[in-house]
Amino acid sequence: MALEVTTIASTAPANAPEELVTWVAGVAELTKPDAIHWCDGSEAERDRLNAQMVASGTFVQLNPEKRPNSYLARSEPSDVARVESRTFICSADPDDAGPTNNWADPVEMKKTLAWLFAGCMRGRTMYVIPFSMGPLGGEISKLGIEITDSPYVVVNMRMMTRIGKPALDAIAAGGTWVPAVHSVGYPLVDPDGNARADVPWPCSDEKYITHFPETHEIWSYGSGYGGNALLGKKCYALRIASVLAREEGWLAEHMLILRITGPDGREYHLTAAFPSACGKTNLAMLRPTIPGWKVETVGDDIAWMRPGADGRLYAINPEAGFFGVAPGTSEETNPTCLHALNHDVIFTNVALTDDGDIWWEGLTDVPPDHLIDWQGLDWTPGCGRPAAHPNSRFTVHASQAESISPDWEDPAGVPIDVILFGGRRARNIPLISESYDWEHGVFVGATVSSEQTAAAEGTVGSLRRDPFAMLPFCGYNMADYWAHWLKVGLVLGDKAPKIFQVNWFRKDADGKWLWPGFGDNSRPIEWALRRVNGEVEAVDAISGRIPAPGDLNVEGLDISEQQLSALFELDPDAWDREAALTEEYFAQFGDKVPEALHQQLWYLRERIAKAQDAAE
Ligand code: O2Y
Ligand code: MN
Questions:
Q1: Alpha carbons 171 and 129: distance in angstroms, whole number
Q2: pLDDT for residue 453
Q3: What residue's CA is closest to ligand 1, atom 14?
Q4: How far is the CA of 565 from the centre of ligand 2 (A)?
Q5: Which of 11, 200, 358, 468 is 20–30 Å from 93 (CA)?
Q6: What is the C-alpha separation between 302 and 279, in angstroms, rounded?
Q7: What protein residues have CB closer than 5 angstroms to ion ligand 2?
Q8: How far is the CA of 278 from the centre of ligand 2 (A)?
Q9: How many CB atoms are closer than 10 A to CB 205?
């Protein structure tokens, strides 16, 4: 039976502010749950929910001797990833969402949501999750409240953010918070009171992941999966935070954060933006092959960056955990990540071994003889189906990575020396190239493109523009976002980080990789850091400044001079064609494209023309 409003208020912790209680009561009145639980974030609460989900069939507990305190969830086949086509930015003016977002009228969307959410939690418990993005109390950190009817979301949010009493205390002390409402859209009782049984992975065929940039609200309906449901991640930390960042003069970015310590003990910090399927998690846990260098993880996916009192740009990781792709993770590709998954992990859509452990494609060279696949079916090698879903995931607390930096939770953040923009490009883009200045760096970030792989949306091999790796994550018009980056550059002045473009994926004429990647990606990064120190000169080229011959450290690497020069080959005619595509691409943003970026395209064409002349 749905709760009375007075009962709803009585569920709230004593220090919950009235405004919050009124909002929760309003959502409960709309969604009509059977019970309300305010999450305190305790281990006891987590253990209770885990046991409840094992009993209901949502979780399979893994063999505690092999994988202590770890669980496997299997989602519905229709609910296996973020759904960009069902993700909406609901700004009053469509122009404020821009051509790269799905826009919806906020008034109309609120009507749709009111209809969808009416009674959607009947028969369920509504969980109220106070959470902090970033260390509690930090100047760059922010608060939120997620309401959800999914216990799976609660236990995932507990690892991915800082939930519970401390966050509620910060809200009670007057902290502003972003409201985020989530429902799986599978009520257990209909409006006439007819009950139906629950299923292990409740969700709805109808999905809406909606953002209201003017009121800083998030409403998500119909999916229990990842970025659609763990609303602190992409919905808040990127889409809504990018709007807040623009209003408040900072940057909310889809970037990993690293600390790198050189042989002389000097520390550097780097952020890096990569589109999907470019090895971002591997870079976040890089094991450098150059002797004397150490790399530590500060964040694997999102960076919030703000100019500090000393004028430099400081970054925090707003998250507390990793929600990474499992397939392809192995002792060879990312041992640090694999070791982090030894205990206290939630796996979603990986395969189950006969002895109660997990497996996915790429974990071992030889698959086990028998598995239960991600859909709960018997699986044997050669059966023609993947055992784990290609977008299967692990959720793990960041502190479990042996590479985690001791300062990953420093509320003040880490000062950024270098920003990298990457992409997957078989041709044209060199291994590394330094931007001529901040404006050129913004142009490079704005024009990033990447070849699509089987795992991503789009045709395999086709190029997808993914500006700043923010295409699905910018909460407002992308061209206004570029203008914001240019503005931040003016504030930072000569204290701005240096910006580089990297490409680990270049191939030779026979389609073979030219660069070994993985730990050897520390080599171009080392060159970037030596540029920061002013230790090496660079050569002006079409794409930017590239290493002078002999300056890239390839000691101990089995790479020929020919391969090395192919990694930096810049064909002026091919670049001319890229410039024409960039002009077309900018055209979709109309007169919103900042003049400085048109200017950068003009400079690029000048460099191309000069190279064409020299080649004649
Ligand atoms: O498919 C999902 O719901 C997850 S998407 C995701 C998860 C962790 C880090 N990055 C991403 C992404 O799509 O960039
Ligand atoms: Mn991401």
A1: 12
A2: 76
A3: 276
A4: 32
A5: 468
A6: 15
A7: 301
A8: 11
A9: 9
Q: What is the DSSP letter of 545?
A: E
Per-residue CA distances from 176 to 251, 258, 305 (Å): 19, 29, 19
Look up the pTM and report it: 0.97
Q: How far apart are CA 207 and CA 147, in angstroms?
A: 17
Catalytic entry in 235, 278, 337, 474 = 278
Known catalytic membership, residue 278: yes
Are the C-beta atoms of 350 and 325 separated by less than 8 Å? no
Locate the DSSP E strands across 167-263.
Answer: 177-183, 208-212, 217-221, 251-253, 255-261
Ligand 2: centre distance to CA 302 (Å): 7
Give the tens place of pLDDT for each residue, 220-265: 999 999 999 999 999 999 999 999 999 999 999 999 999 999 999 9
Q: For ligand 1, which residues put their CB under 6 angstroms from it?
A: 81-82, 225-227, 276, 301, 323, 391
- Three-state DSSP class for 30? helix
Query: Which of 149, 169, 144 has the alpha carbon at shortest distance from 15?
Result: 169
* pLDDT tier, 376 (very low <50, low <70, confident <90, very high otherwise): very high
For 440-486, what is the HEC assignment?
Answer: HHHHHHHCCEEECCCCCCCCCCCEEECHHHCCCCCCCCHHHHHHHHH
Residue of 234, 300, 393, 464 to test ligand 1 pocket, by largest number of atoms within 8 Å of CB:
234
Task: Considering only CA atoms, give the Rg of the chain.
Answer: 24
Tokens of 101: 């977002």
Query: If you measure from the C-alpha of residue 276 to the centroid of ligand 2, how many angstroms do you get, rounded to a whole number?
Result: 7
pLDDT single digits (tens) 11-66: 899 999 999 999 999 999 999 999 999 999 999 999 999 999 999 999 999 999 99
Coil, strand or helix at 248: helix
Write down the residue that tokens 């011959």 correspond to: 549
